[in-house]
Amino acid sequence: MRPTSLLRSLFREGDVAICRPLRNLDHAFLVPLKEDKSVTTHNGSLSHNDIIGKPKRIYLPFTKSRSSKNPAADKFVVTEPTLDEYVSLCRRRAQPIYAMDAAVVAQMGDIDPFGDEQRHFLEAGTGNGSLTLAICHHLHAANALARHFKDPSLRGAILHSVDRNRTHQEMGQHNVEMYKRGRFSGDVEFSIAESPSAYLEKSGITLHGAFLDLPDPQLYLGDLAKALALEGTIVVFCPSITQLLKCKQTLAEERIDLMMVRAVELPPGNGGATREWDLQAKEWIFAARR
């Protein structure tokens, strides 16, 4: 095994671990690892030093004042969290789009990060960063050259994530930076802006895709269409059928140069499935293409 492969298979300071008591595997919690720190739960306490340097799937005992007759009651299993687990358990100040739903939203954007020129994508509404991570999964490969030479100007694709709430964005940016030691940090640029229209006016970029998770998305479709490259896609995620209908109405009334492709419902729960437009839907994705 190469030294770099060995290091990646061990927990290091700065990693995020997920811990589960063996007697209740559903009671999971995230632990950002830092030397000489410890975390206390009702099951007992555990030291970060007992995890750092260990393989990424280990069984360790809790430190308890009194041991239990049940061996499983005094132990926990430590692994590296999946993206779904990370999004579900990470700190938040805004309602998250869970990982499977975020994957559907990103997939509907038909993201193509490769081209003759640098490509730009916009996310309006950073939130807790879950959709940011899903989009960056699609962009990451286009920035391999930039990572190799440590030169951001060589990036092939950039996600511009904007939010008008600084508190929400700071938490979303923190969650992106903590996931897998900041694997996707170089793929995204965070900015504070009152609206996507205001950000586009300031930046002057041409978009190859946009993702809206904010109130009144119909207000920004006209400006986004003007900044959108041919065959670019705008995806709108909204919890209300009224918002969806307003988007469709705005396209027709203002003669915006976009074509509505489809509208799908995300059924309640932890996500992962879709079905076509139903007026009783609870959460919606709307996709339009230039």
TrEMBL record:
Q: Name one Pfam family in it.
A: GCD14
Q: Is Ribonucleoprotein one of the keywords? A: no
BP terms from Gene Ontology: tRNA methylation
Cellular component per GO?
mitochondrion; tRNA (m1A) methyltransferase complex
Stated EC number for the protein is: 2.1.1.220
Q: Which domain of life is it from?
A: Eukaryota
Name the UniProt key words of this record, in alphabetical order: Methyltransferase, S-adenosyl-L-methionine, Transferase, tRNA processing
User: What enzyme class is recorded for this protein?
Assistant: transferase
Q: Which GO terms describe its molecular function?
A: tRNA (adenine(58)-N1)-methyltransferase activity
Q: Where is the tRNA (adenine(58)-N(1))-methyltransferase catalytic subunit TRM61 C-terminal domain?
A: 89-255
Q: Does the keyword Metal-binding apply?
A: no
Cite the PANTHER family for this sequence.
TRNA (ADENINE(58)-N(1))-METHYLTRANSFERASE (PTHR12133), TRNA (ADENINE(58)-N(1))-METHYLTRANSFERASE, MITOCHONDRIAL (PTHR12133:SF1)
Descriptive protein name: tRNA (adenine(58)-N(1))-methyltransferase catalytic subunit TRM61
The organism is Candidozyma duobushaemuli
